[in-house]
Amino acid sequence: MKTYKVKGLLTNDGFLSNAYVSVDDKGLITAIDASSDLTNVTELEVYALPGFQNAHSHAFQYAMAGLAERHATNQTPDDFWSWREAMYQLALTISPDDLEVIATMLYAEMLRHGYTNVAEFHYVHHDKTGAEFSNLSEMGERLVAAAKKVGIGITLVPIFYQKGGFGKAPSEGQRRFISNDLDNYLRLLAASEKSTQQYEYANLAVGIHSMRGVEPTIIAEIAKNGPQDLPFHIHISEQLKEIEASIAYLGKRPVEWMLDNVAMNDRFHLVHATHLTNAETDGIAKSGANVVLCPTTEGNLGDGIFPLRRFQEQGGKWSIGTDSHIGLNPFEELRLLDYGQRLISHKRNTFYSVNQGDSGLYAFEQATVAGRKAMNNYNHEYFKVGEPFNAVLIDANASLVANSSLENLPSTILYCTDASMQYGTIAQGKLVVKEGKHELIKEVAEKFKSTISKLANR
């Protein structure tokens, strides 16, 4: 057993001062107290917040972060669709060993920034020729191994990717992604479940790449008749061109079609959902489905801005993800999400609900509770006996933090801290990041640098 003492522990009811958190050998919380007579205690001058949930990740894309920002001045300006072609080229080059090394580095960095769980939206399934590996989940298994090595919890979301667009065959650049039909995808899902059994803190979700990536009638079928006890993730309405194509093919917008044809509830996670009508926005909220917002990636790709104010006025729930990993700090994701809303609404009260007017507390609640649902964790209590101890640790002596009242602390942390003020991260009961460095960073970084050098894409 191990006990941590922190200056403050953020609970659902606010900060518990001078909290003692004891964990067993599996990292599960055995006790939370405001005092303790134990002698073997690790005392940390930090405020502990619930570990962040990264609800949308494409691990392999970390290898191309920052490489799509140079544009020819004599050609049509770059957009999402040209970026996608560059992404396909990377996807065609990486081996299973490469993917494991890239993901290990990425997940170590996620932990450094305070993410303790990740939903890996994984679609690079096959070998470089497009043929199946003997283990259908070879690439997914490498992602689980990467997560296990550095200590982050992972929800493996093997993605059903069938089409190259509405009514179109897949392109050659998509050959590593493709499951031809539902039976093939269910085989992949079963193999992926076996891969998750290799790590105590790994589990599974169902994933559809997009409305354009899978025949819509099959999406409806798997939603109705597929596993009902797993989260259901899907990209949707990210780009205007996608919506135009959906109307041409289906006579309806993507979210409109989903609302009419799929009985969505709170196990559904709609990623991006950028371009919505008021009826679609209200419909998602009323269905109980969640949205997953990735502000740094959405901003980088020029996707647009999700109608958050209207969505939350209808009681909508949302989480955050880092998607292409152009940014990895959850506080930055939340700030960008908030400030984008302020800029288009000309109002400052963006993060709020009828029950919560503290912007920091509201943001942490949304990102935690809806984010956990994306991982198939429906526990609303931030820290609970019997659950893993996952926490991001903020230096209690950081400039603006040191003298903040507990009442002002949540929003001070959200809006005024940076990575230098994050002391570390506890994941599954273990202090894996201390003083801003992951315990395995030297080994992990060396392998990563060697792999990226071999890929020669930078």
Overview of this protein structure:
By secondary structure, this protein is of the alpha/beta class. The protein has two domains: 2-50 and 383-442, Urease, subunit C, domain 1; 52-374, TIM Barrel (Alpha-Beta Barrel). It contains 15 helices and 17 strands. Strands 5, 6, 7, 8, 9, 10, 11, 12 and 13 form a nine-stranded parallel β-sheet that branches. Strand 1 (2-11) and strand 2 form a beta hairpin. Helix 2 (96-113) runs parallel beside helix 3 (138-150), helix 2 (96-113) packs across helix 15 (441-455) and helix 12 (359-374) packs across helix 14. The longest helix is centred in the N-terminal third of the chain and has 18 residues, at 96-113. The chain is globular, with a radius of gyration of 21 Å.
